[in-house]
């Protein structure tokens, strides 16, 4: 029996979670009688089986051949594992395995619950191998931990230590093409496993898209699978220095692999799209594709710097699309909330562009994967190094058409509510008046009622298909029980008129706020929802704070900014949740800069941007956020802006701000500083909610000032036209 057909035991290791997929792959390579263990598959087979795994396995980490087993005697109480490893190593003649002139390295893996200094234990195992050579041939091999000719893998167990020859040498995930790295890359064998689990081959894809391609691993692994390119075709292996290596057998397997690849390369490839918001990643992807030997395939690969919000028209109708990506979960975005927003935004884009198509998306938390809108979703948990990752597979659900609530609303039939008939009639009338306008303008969030009747001092705001009801705290002269009863009547009428249930109505009591009290958390319920305004998806919180994250009275101003922002550098001071900046960005602004003293609201701002597919994770990015006092920030910088929006609070005494801010007292200084940062042909929009506000005469004298309040108040606030005032301010010499 020759060496190629003699049967031996082999271990094939893999990342945790890959065992089942690896076992399926090995059977496809002709391996029989496998056994599955955590982190490895074992089988008894031929050397040809082992060589084929080294050449063709896309999922394995290492191919090991157990050579020697050292059983442990338990006669002593305190185990000296390092000495056991030495004794096991010296008890075998390693000169039968490799020549003394070869270099070698030892990789030690210790089973759980075994306590040992692995560095010292590895050193003692090495001593045992060297001493074995000295006893057998009088010569000793050298250690080379970086590029050894022979790699030994030792499993230190509770009952025995197993010494293996690592036929793979370097880990099999190292294909040799990744010459340029990016942050948090996924290992090549894990990428291949995801493509296999996602059924790339079976999808008959016409388009393969990775919009956050990093260093291009998914694109390259897809190319290798579709062109029948063996992962081991151009790399070096650990068996080359082994005395039992069958060179002729290996060369025949290699020749067969080369021929299969050449034949497959004659077949047409799908159209690949590799996008990333980071230009360095775009460059790395191109360079790695060339390093992998696929330069000739670049004609069918579009590699471009793009954000999620900047996808081209894929013309995917009637085509099969395979979507796969590894988003920058956690490492750069930092917190779970931002990560969830990223996945929500990604899911919305997929539903819009690729309904009913196959997708595979990596997440670092199950909660992130859960927001992806997939039909019949599947989940695979793997270990990418020491980090657990979760991969969601499935077919993308088509996007649901979201219409303004008032479009389908009709006046409701209900029994009169004694004590609230007038209120119900007024609310119904308001909704009928607003309906045509809201439907025509596509308005999803608006005010339905604002203390129109003296006895019902509440504000009723519609956010999508939910209501935010604010009770203005009654004067102290009003009996609290009477006020409570009247408010409960109002709630009953609101439910009856709108047809919405209790779970869609969120209640707060609002009193006059000063300073930081307006930012004080009112609840910990955290009911956050996504609403639509123009092109923007916006996160609102209907429970935790008095304000929801979206000032409805400034809707028309935000939409105005969206229309005017294209190509401009936009600055938003006192940016709150930066919804004005978001509209500017979606309107095509060259850049946006948002400044606010509250980190809470700046983080919320970033979530809004990420939700809309806009990148916020680099300091030099197009969209920047600064936690700072606006006065200090204006004073310290020199950048010029084409459009500035300022909507400051009426009063503030935040603990981060030394002193107080008063809109009437301080607006002159604020506007003058802001105008210093405005380009000569730029526009500053200034607004505030202080009813007694008067613009300083110096501003009126020195700049072109036009009050535009009426243009910035929507139909839903016409009943309360003093809700805010707004001005358009430009440098002298420009038409106001």
UniProtKB/TrEMBL annotation:
Its main location: cytoplasm. It holds the Pfam family RlmL_1st. It comes from the Bacteria. Coiled coil: none annotated. SMART domains: THUMP. It catalyses: guanosine(2069) in 23S rRNA + S-adenosyl-L-methionine = N(2)-methylguanosine(2069) in 23S rRNA + S-adenosyl-L-homocysteine + H(+); guanosine(2445) in 23S rRNA + S-adenosyl-L-methionine = N(2)-methylguanosine(2445) in 23S rRNA + S-adenosyl-L-homocysteine + H(+). One of its GO terms (molecular function) is RNA binding. It is found in: Cytoplasm. GO terms for cellular component: cytoplasm. This is Ribosomal RNA large subunit methyltransferase K/L. Residues 49-167 form the THUMP domain. Belongs to the methyltransferase superfamily. RlmKL family.
């Amino acid at each position: 029996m020759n060496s190629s057909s003699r049967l031996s035991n082999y271990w094939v290791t893999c990342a945790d979670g890959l065992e089942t997929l690896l076992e399926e792959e090995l059977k496809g390579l002709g391996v029989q009688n496998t056994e599955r263990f955590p982190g490895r598959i074992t089988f008894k087979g031929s050397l040809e089986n082992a060589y084929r795994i080294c050449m063709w396995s896309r999922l394995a980490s290492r191919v090991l051949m157990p050579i020697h087993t050292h059983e442990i005697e338990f006669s002593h109480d305190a185990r000296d594992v390092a000495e056991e490893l030495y004794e096991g190593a010296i008890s075998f003649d390693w000169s039968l395995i490799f020549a003394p002139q070869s270099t070698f390295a030892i990789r030690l893996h210790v089973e759980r619950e075994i306590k040992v200094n692995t560095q010292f234990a590895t050193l003692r195992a090495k001593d045992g191998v060297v001493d074995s050579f000295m006893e057998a041939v009088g010569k000793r091999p050298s250690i080379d931990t970086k590029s050894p000719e022979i790699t030994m893998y030792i499993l230190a167990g509770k009952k025995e230590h197993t010494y293996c020859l690592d036929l793979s040498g370097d880990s099999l995930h190292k294909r040799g093409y990744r010459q340029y790295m990016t942050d948090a890359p996924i290992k090549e064998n894990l990428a291949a496993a995801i493509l296999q689990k996602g059924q790339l081959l079976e999808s008959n894809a016409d388009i393969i898209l990775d919009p956050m391609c990093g260093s291009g691993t998914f694109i390259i692994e897809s190319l290798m699978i579709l062109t029948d390119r063996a992962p081991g075709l151009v790399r070096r292996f650990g068996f080359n220095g082994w005395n039992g290596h069958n060179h002729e057998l290996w060369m025949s397997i290699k020749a067969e692999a080369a021929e299969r690849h050449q034949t497959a390369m004659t077949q047409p490839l799908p159209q690949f799209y590799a996008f990333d918001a980071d230009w360095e990643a775009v460059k790395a992807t191109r360079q790695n594709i060339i390093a992998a030997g696929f330069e000739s395939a670049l004609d069918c690969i579009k590699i471009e710097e793009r954000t999620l919000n900047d996808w081209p028209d894929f013309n995917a109708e009637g085509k099969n699309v395979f979507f796969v990506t590894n988003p920058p979960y956690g490492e750069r975005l930092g917190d779970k909330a931002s990560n969830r927003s990223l996945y929500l935004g990604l899911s919305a884009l997929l539903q819009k562009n690729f309904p009913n198509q196959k997708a595979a998306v990596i997440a670092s938390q199950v909660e992130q994967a859960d927001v992806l809108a997939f039909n019949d979703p599947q989940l695979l948990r793997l270990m990418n190094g020491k980090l657990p990752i979760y991969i969601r597979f499935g077919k993308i659900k088509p996007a649901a058409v979201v219409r303004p609530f008032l479009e389908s609303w009709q006046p409701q039939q209900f029994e009169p509510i004694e004590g609230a008939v007038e209120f119900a009639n007024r609310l119904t009338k308001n909704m009928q008046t607003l309906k045509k306008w809201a439907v025509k303008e596509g308005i999803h969030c608006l005010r339905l009622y604002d203390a129109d009747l003296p006895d019902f001092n509440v504000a009723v705001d519609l956010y999508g298909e939910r209501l935010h009801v604010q009770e203005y705290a009654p004067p102290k002269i009003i009996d609290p029980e009477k006020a409570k009863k009247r408010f409960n009547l109002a709630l009953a009428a609101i439910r009856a008129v709108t047809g919405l249930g209790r779970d869609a109505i969120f209640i707060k009591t609002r009193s006059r706020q000063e300073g930081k009290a307006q930012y004080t958390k009112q609840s910990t319920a955290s009911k956050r929802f996504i609403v639509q305004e123009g092109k923007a998806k916006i996160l609102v919180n209907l429970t935790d704070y008095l304000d929801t994250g979206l000032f409805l009275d400034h809707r028309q101003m935000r939409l105005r900014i969206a229309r005017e922002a294209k190509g401009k550098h936009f600055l938003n001071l006192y940016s709150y949740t930066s919804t004005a900046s978001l509209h500017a960005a979606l309107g095509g602004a060259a850049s946006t800069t948002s400044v606010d003293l509250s980190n809470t609201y700046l983080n919320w701002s970033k979530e809004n941007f990420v939700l809309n597919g806009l990148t916020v994770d680099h300091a030099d990015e197009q969209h920047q956020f600064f936690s700072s006092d606006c006065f200090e920030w204006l004073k310290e910088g020199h950048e010029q802006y084409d459009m500035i929006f300022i909507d400051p609070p009426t009063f503030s005494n935040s603990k981060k701000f030394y002193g107080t801010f008063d809109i009437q007292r301080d607006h002159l200084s604020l506007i003058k500083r802001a105008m210093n940062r405005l380009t000569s042909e730029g526009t500053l929009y200034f607004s505030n909610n202080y009813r007694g506000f008067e613009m300083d005469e110096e501003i009126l004298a020195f700049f072109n000032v036009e009050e535009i309040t009426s243009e910035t108040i929507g139909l839903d606030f016409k009943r309360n036209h003093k809700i805010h005032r707004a001005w358009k301010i430009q440098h002298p010499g420009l038409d106001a």
